[in-house]
Amino acid sequence: MAISSILAAYSGDAEGSSGLGLALFLARAHKAHLTGVVWRGPSPVESRFQTLMPKDVLEMLTRRAAAAAEETRDGFAERVSGESVETSFIDLEDSSEFSLSRCAQSYDLVVMGSRAAAVGREHMAARPDVVALRSGRPVILVPHDYTARALGERVVLAWDGKRAASRALGDALPLMSAGAEVTVLSVGSAPETGPGDDMVGLLKRHGMKAKALVRQAGSRGISGTLMDGCTELGADLMVMGAYEHSKFREDILGGVTQDILEGARLPILMSH
Prior knowledge:
- By secondary structure, this protein is α/β, with parallel strands linked by helices.
- It has ten helices and ten strands.
- Helix 6 links the parallel strand 6 (about 155-160) and strand 7 (about 180-185).
- Helix 4 (about 100-105) crosses helix 5 (about 130-135) and helix 8 (about 220-235) crosses helix 10.
């Protein structure tokens, strides 16, 4: 499937600019329409003290958030000015992250910068794992200070043999270059295969240079082993399934998805 419509979630701060940069890079490469979106839920102050606040204070906070969103729109317009890409922009105001996830359903791909936002704009940054979980669309998380030079030429597939990882690979195929070098990286042991092709066979049928690699989890756990493997292999993209365990369990106990989000050093495509 071709990539024809990309949604770039943008909070207007430096932490999110790398995500917009990669979204522009992909829009040019795929001749895709690029839509910028700013999501703004309630501010931390509103969330905690809304029932205690006078009406005029709540109105002031609303006006301030609207002004910040307008600044973000202007920053997006300035960033894409002169680019040979069709663009549009959405100001998505709601009280829950689900609104951004519903918006994402109408796009082929969502690109998001680091979740961290500038002080005072934390409520304008959404969680990429939540968007992937609720929208059913692939999400690329882009780390801070990342500059797009290439994507999909050297790829690591975090492979555990489960549904989410298989879904992620299917979503990532349109982003992979012809003849891409793809490493199917498993931690601990390689998943069992049955009759027919395995993941390496599938990738080779797509004309890619694929190989399987198994690493034992080191002192930094599964997520650290995956990240270290990406660095050693010179990967420009890691593909992974999100939340094979429940999101509640990962939020409480920690898990691979959460650790990868916090420590990503290259773009991560995740699907659920």
